[in-house]
Design goal:
The complex is a heterodimer. Chain A is of the alpha+beta class. Helix content of chain A is about 20%, strand content about 35%. Chain A has one domain: Alpha-D-Glucose-1,6-Bisphosphate, Chain A, domain 4, CATH 3.30.530. Chain A contains 5 helices and 7 strands. Chain A has a 7-stranded antiparallel beta sheet with strand order 1-7-6-5-4-3-2. The longest helix of chain A has 10 residues. The radius of gyration of chain A is 16 Å and the shape is globular. By secondary structure, chain B is an alpha+beta fold. Chain B contains 5 helices and 3 strands. In chain B, helix 2 crosses helix 4. Classes of the chains: A alpha+beta, B alpha+beta. At the A-B interface, strand 1, helix 1, strand 7, helix 4 and helix 5 of A face helix 1, helix 2 and helix 5 of B.
Chain lengths: ~150, ~100
């Protein structure tokens, strides 16, 4: 309940799957889900640890989504999601959730598993993080941002 | 709508407090720089969004996180990634 976990089996090598996930993000990401004013033109995942993760609108404006925390092609990618509850970029890593994607061989294909966790970090005020995380419903903040941007 | 209800910073504070443990209106007001009537108003919005529920305990009313609303929010995100990964699989298998 405290995380989103999704998995898909694709008929392709891990290498190809990793490339499509990172280099062609915009080709599969639901196009209506973006934060800039203009329509979505591209989503960039910079190919290195510490790289940027951002969208580019048709007006050329760049909007940050987060940061690359681990770059381990073709098996693992860890992204920090820095958009806070007001759908603003929050540079503080303590207030970012994370999306971990793993690519593992399965039969003649690749199992791609995605876990989005740590929502409570966006949601809680910094001074309340510990209290909020300790509670049984302390997560959940990022979602309002998702809604504002996605609906 | 749960998302809109949490767009207000004070309501997020209130929700965070209730996520830690259930509280009465007075207890919430004591933690925040807002009046009791203002807290009540915020609680009403949170309650309508099903993020918070109230239970009577004798003459006291205690507020706590309503997991119906919270679960709905999580499910929303789950749908977004589900849709994204379905598209992803299709693109991966194109070539």
């Amino acid at each position: 309940m405290t995380e989103v976990r999704r998995s898909v089996l694709v008929k392709a090598s891990a290498d190809h799957a990793f490339k499509v996930f990172t280099e062609k993000f915009v080709t599969w990401w639901p196009a209506s889900h973006h934060i800039g004013k203009a329509k979505l033109r591209d989503v960039v995942v910079e190919p290195r640890e510490g790289g940027r993760w951002y969208e580019i609108g048709t007006d050329g404006a760049e909007c940050e989504w987060g940061e690359v925390k681990a770059w381990e092609p073709p098996s693992r990618l860890l992204l920090a999601w820095h958009l806070d509850g007001d759908w603003d970029y929050d540079p503080d890593p303590a207030r970012a959730s994370e999306v971990e994607i793993t690519f593992a061989s399965e039969g003649d294909g690749t199992r791609v598993e995605l876990v989005h966790r740590g929502f409570e970090r966006h949601f809680t005020k910094p001074e309340r993080v510990r209290e909020g995380v300790g509670g049984d419903g302390g997560w959940g903040g990022i979602l309002l941002g998702f809604a504002d941007a996605f609906v | 709508m749960a998302f809109a209800a949490l767009g207000d910073p004070t309501r997020r504070e209130i929700f965070t407090l209730l996520a830690a443990r259930p509280r009465a209106v007075g207890e919430i007001a004591a933690e925040l720089p807002v009046s009791r009537p203002a807290v009540s108003q915020h609680l009403k919005v949170l309650k309508e969004a099903r993020l918070v529920r109230v239970e009577a305990e004798g003459t006291r009313r205690r507020y706590s996180v309503d997991h119906v609303g919270v679960a709905a929010m999580r499910d929303y995100l789950d749908d977004v990634w589900g849709q994204a990964l379905a598209n992803f699989a299709a693109v991966v298998e194109e070539a």
